[in-house]
Design a protein that fits this description.
One of its GO terms (cellular component) is nuclear pore. Helices cover 64% and strands 2% of the residues. With 437 residues, the chain is mainly alpha-helical. The protein has a two-stranded antiparallel ribbon with strand order 1-2. Strands 3-4 form a two-stranded antiparallel sheet. The longest helix has 52 residues. Helix 9 packs across helix 11, helix 9 crosses helix 17 and helix 11 packs across helix 12.
């Protein structure tokens, strides 16, 4: 009774849907089918779809196997003739008195064990062959890489024995997988090793610095120039290298660092002036003074407000003196200050500073110059004048002078020049921790 009610409700819903469709569009054709006709139409659609799907699968399988060289008809016949029941069915237990069944089971067990063992041996042999092939390929690849690194036209003979390979001296002429920069370094290492074998002294850093001149990256050459300057120090006591705080090691390092920073800045000024010769108005006697004067003309230093004590050849006297000191030409700075009539008092201190071996005034001169700085120069509006006074008299060593030392190299140069070693306190006036801060 319940099923009839469910079918009646389903029929009513179907009739309602039909009425809704008819009201929505009166142009649709009316198809009247009973349940049997609907079932038969569904079966026909299912058979048609299944046939197409199976046919497509067979066609794809035939194309795949045919492209691999298989005979599809013969393969189908062989598959149909196979009977997998004997190999897959479990062996039925037999009674102890059933001799025929016992022998049959033993025979089948022996065959299955032989087949399983053969399968394991086949897989093990295939895996061993695969690893041997991989090792052979790896050895060939390793030999090719080593030959490319050596850069010789002859291939290396790699042996598995523990014999020492003694070949002819390497030649840098031939094929190589290294680029031009790496080949330049490799060539210098080769030359250094040859010199070492012959008992000759050969500086590897010097040769690397010379080789870096031809590199397109100028930063690499600057880096090697810095390294060469720092290691090019006089002979030191045997224990000096083990003590980083030893004055015998730190003082030469500070001197070399100062020379390197001054030389690099002189090259920078020369490049800046030569790039704008028309605007720089370079002329006169060749030397540091004319380069600095042209450099200040490019930077329009004369237009800076607050400059004092006049000009020399159209440029501020204290700016000229500062940049001459920055380039390491202290004699040029002294000659510039001597040409300014308002700097007669400071000229004596600068002459003593230039003529001293350690670039340091005597204790009395340094005290008088500091008093002069505190009395008049500290409040000066000329940043170059304050910087030169602090540099010569080591006044206010903690001041960084940002107006004239705007770059890191300028800051480091000023601090290196202002630092000095006190023999009484056995320490530097400006410790390394203060430089780091």
């Amino acid at each position: 009774m319940a099923s009839e009610n469910g079918l009646n409700a389903l029929v009513q819903q179907a009739e309602q849907l039909t009425a809704d469709i008819t009201e929505a569009s009166g142009e649709l054709p009316h198809v009247h089918r009973n349940l049997y006709q609907i079932h038969e139409a569904g079966q026909r659609l299912l058979e048609k779809t299944a046939g197409v799907r199976d046919g497509k699968a067979d066609v794809k399988a035939a194309i795949l196997l045919g492209s691999r060289g298989f005979d599809v008809p013969k393969l189908s016949q062989k598959l149909e003739s196979l009977n997998a029941a004997k190999s897959l069915e479990a062996i039925e237990p037999v009674w102890e008195t059933d001799i025929e069944g016992f022998l049959s089971n033993e025979r089948e067990n022996t065959l299955l064990a032989a087949i399983e063992q053969s399968r394991k041996n086949t897989f093990a042999e295939a895996e061993r062959s695969q690893w041997l092939c991989c090792e052979r390929e790896w050895e060939e690849e390793k030999e090719m890489i080593l030959n490319s690194l050596v850069g010789t036209g002859q291939e290396l003979e790699l042996t598995r024995d523990s014999e020492v390979y003694r070949g002819s001296p390497l030649s840098m002429h031939g094929r190589s997988g290294l680029d031009a920069v790496a080949m330049a370094y490799a060539r210098e290492v080769f030359v250094r090793n040859e010199a070492k074998l012959q008992g000759l002294t050969h500086s590897l850093i010097t040769t690397f610095h010379q080789a870096s001149i031809a590199f397109p990256n100028k930063s690499v050459h600057d880096c090697w120039s810095l390294v060469k300057a720092l290691v090019d120090i006089p002979s030191l006591p045997p224990a000096a290298h083990t003590l980083r705080s030893s004055p015998s090691l730190q003082l030469p390092l500070l001197s070399q660092a100062r020379h390197h920073l001054e030389h690099r800045y002189l090259e920078y000024i020369r490049e800046s002036v030569h790039q704008s010769l028309a605007q720089a108005q370079l002329g006169g006697v060749p030397g540091t003074f004319q380069l600095v004067r042209s450099f200040l003309h490019l930077r329009q230093a004369s237009s800076i407000p607050g400059l004092e004590d006049g000009c020399v050849e159209g440029q501020p006297v204290w700016a000229l003196a500062f940049y001459c000191l920055r380039c390491g030409d202290r004699d040029c700075a002294l000659a510039t200050i001597s040409r300014a009539q308002s700097c007669v008092e400071f000229c004596g201190y600068l002459r003593e500073y230039v003529q001293s071996q350690d670039l340091r005034l005597s204790h009395s001169s340094e005290t008088r110059l500091r008093l002069l700085y505190k009395r008049t120069v500290r409040t000066s509006t000329d940043p170059y004048k304050r910087a030169v006074y602090c540099l010569v008299g080591r006044c206010e060593v903690a001041d960084s002078h940002p107006d004239v030392c705007s770059k890191t190299e300028d800051y480091m140069w000023f601090k290196v020049n202002g630092n000095r070693f006190c023999a009484v306190a056995h320490s530097f006036a400006l410790p390394l921790s203060l430089l780091h801060s």
